[in-house]
Amino acid sequence: MKEKNIAVYPPDVNESRAYFSVQGKGLRFGLCALRGVGIGAMEKVIEEREQHGKFKDFADFIMRCVRFINKKMVESLIFGGAFDSMGKHRSQYHAVYEEVMRRLAAIDKQKSGAQMSLFGDIIEEEAPEVSYPEIPEWSTAELLSKEKSVLGVYVSGHPFGAYSAYFTDCTFHTGMLSDYEEDEETGDRTYQQFKTGDQVSMGGIVAAVRKINTKGGTIMAFVTVEDLYGSVECVAFPRVYEKIKPYLRHDGVVRLSGKIDTPAEKLPCIILDHLTEFVPPEEQQPAETHEETVREQVLWLDARSLSEEDFSELLETIAAYEGEVKTKILHGGKRYEFSVHLSRALTAELRSFLPANCVKLV
């Protein structure tokens, strides 16, 4: 959508329909597009809004919808930006939502039972005021990571945006994939800014890695790389894969080069020659110092409070960040050991499972 100048807006409890809808010259995410929300519950939210007017603020939303939403749904709405228009940071809503829901669920229960308070007062009909903590918004990396976890895509921005200025010398970006002419009879596409065999370079973020075993017993990989405009599949044959595999970390920023291939009836891809991790100049440090630091670090995760289902999901998340930092996890009376690549994205995902005091780097 970006390359076509079509704005995409995050979900909003006062603007969104159930699914995608046109808003001005852009598209608005629907509430049902969020992961972790029930379609029936979101349809009731929309029905409540249409019958009794827009929600005044966060507390008003909870009070009017508490009967058909749960904490997980509210958390997904927060992560997806559905309350952004109400004026507070997502971090602030996340800090208070459980307590607000608890208070308003109790009030709703009293109202349903036609009970009076201990002092004989009528149960309040207006949502109580909420005291929000004076805390900053999540970092861009954490906010976008949480957003993508519930929407499947980045909407408020893209983590590569902070690095794009370092790649102005590259010859390719995924916006070029939309510049083509299509033969009406055969459907074949002629791309205007590149052709098969062209040598290209680009920067982006590793979004996915799919490894396969070849008939010869070696490993090759298909690497999806995202930039500000979209994504492209990159093919790493065995010889190249062995050289680049240390850099194929989920959400890792990379610089790559290779040859464009435009196979019939498929989207163009890049046959990789080189790929390496990109570190901004201001963050670079001597290799020996970095390696010595890594060897000494141990990441401890106290996951004893997690259910088996959440713990399994945590392990799947950690597996996507394989790296060099020793990691020890406590759960179910056992200690599990892994090695991970520390990054802002991993930290953000860990914090979605565990409180800060359960994630320690020592």
Please report the distance between the alpha carbons of the first and last residues.
43 Å
Tell the overall outline: globular
CATH topology of the largest domain: DNA polymerase, domain 1
Percent helix among the residues?
25-40%
List the domain count as a whole number: 3
Outline the biggest β-sheet: 5 strands, mixed, barrel
- Regions with little confidence, pLDDT below 50 for 5+ residues: 118-123, 287-294
The count of strands amounts to 14
The CATH architecture classification of the largest domain is Orthogonal Bundle
Structural class assignment? alpha+beta
Q: What average pLDDT do the residues reach?
A: 87
Alpha plus pi helix count? 9
Percent range for β-strand residues: 15-25%
User: Which CATH top level class of the largest domain fits?
Assistant: Mainly Alpha
The Rg value, from CA coordinates, equals 24 Å
Strand order, largest beta sheet? 6-7-8-10-9
Provide the succession of SSEs: EEEHHHHHEEEEEHEEHEHEEHE
Describe the structure.
The protein is an alpha+beta fold and 362 residues long. The protein folds into three domains: 2-157, DNA polymerase, domain 1, CATH 1.10.150; 160-282, Beta Barrel (OB fold (Dihydrolipoamide Acetyltransferase, E2P)); 287-361, no CATH class. The chain contains nine helices and 14 strands. The strands form four sheets. Strands 6-7-8-10-9 form a five-stranded mixed β-barrel. Helix 3 (71-79) runs antiparallel to helix 4 (90-112), helix 5 packs across helix 9 and helix 8 (308-319) packs antiparallel against helix 9 (344-353). Mean pLDDT is 87; it is low at 118-123 and 287-294.
